[in-house]
Design goal:
The protein is mainly alpha-helical and 248 residues long. The chain contains five helices and four strands; from the N terminus they run H-H-H-H-E-E-H-E-E. The protein has a four-stranded mixed beta sheet. Strand 3 and strand 4 form a beta hairpin. The radius of gyration is 40 Å and the shape is rod-shaped. The two termini are 25 Å apart. Bound molecules: zinc ion (ZN). The site of zinc ion (ZN) has 9 residues, from loops. Zinc ion (ZN) binds next to loops.
């Protein structure tokens, strides 16, 4: 194979790997934000559960105050009952006592309901706190993995860039100029495989004579349509030696 053709194929592999690593690095803030959002959602659940419990306790305290007020009235009525003079007064007082007793009973039932509800809400707070603790643990692990990924990507980028610097030095300046120009114009893909008579990236059919020349891999030939530098992979090597990319 033409030495510079081989080098631009290698260069394309490096550049694609660099672009991929850069893209994944650029996703890091988004992944980090998603972790924060997960944690915030779990914290919000705890806060909501605690607010519901506090509201329940508040309502229950007010009901208990009402019970105390009605019981105060009841004992006052009972005291008054001792001093009534007439039967009419006595019956009227009994009626008041009856009302107050019903009222106390009604409110006490409500207190009991709130107590039962309070037990459920306390359990819900505990569940939400346990979920938050688990989420915190998993978020910490994910954050460590993320930091590890970033570190690995940075290391890999450094290595790729060093390799690129060495490789670029060896490429003929004219060929490199073609490569750089096409790469800038074609979203970073300057090299394409020619297969079955077509450019596999822009899918244009190549003239038979041009395709035959490309098959020999002994010259720098550009696609008439997308300008990419074309190369040919012999059938036996096709699965391992291709740098075909789906972007156009
Ligand atoms: Zn093309």
């Amino acid at each position: 194979m033409h030495a510079d053709l081989e080098r631009v194929i290698a260069l394309q592999r490096l550049d694609s790997a660099v672009a991929d690593a850069q893209r994944r690095l650029a996703e890091e803030p988004e992944r980090s934000k998603a972790l924060d959002a997960r944690l915030d959602a779990a914290k919000q659940k705890v806060a909501d559960a605690k607010a519901r419990l506090a509201e329940n306790q508040n309502v229950r305290r007010n009901l208990e105050k009402d019970v105390a007020v009605h019981q105060g009235r009841l004992s006052k009525f009972r005291d008054q009952l001792m001093s009534v003079k007439t039967n009419v007064e006595y019956q009227a007082m009994q009626k008041e006592i009856g009302f107050a007793q019903t009222e106390v009973k009604t409110i006490e039932d409500k207190v009991l309901e709130r107590m039962l509800e309070g037990d459920e809400l306390t359990a819900a707070v505990k569940r939400a706190e346990a979920e938050l603790a688990a989420e915190q643990k998993s978020a910490d692990a994910d954050r460590r993995a993320l930091a590890g990924d970033v570190e690995a990507l940075r290391t890999s980028l450094e290595k790729l860039r060093a390799e690129r610097t060495d490789l670029v030095r060896a490429v003929d300046p004219q060929v490199l100029a073609i490569y750089d120009l096409v790469s800038r114009r074609r979203h970073g893909i300057a090299v394409a495989e020619a297969r079955d008579g077509i450019c596999t990236i822009c899918h244009v059919r190549l003239r038979p004579q041009v395709f035959n020349t490309i098959r020999r891999n002994d010259a720098i030939i550009q696609c008439d349509s997308c300008q990419r530098i074309l190369y040919f992979v012999p059938a036996a090597a096709q699965t391992t030696d291709s740098v075909t990319h789906s972007t156009s």
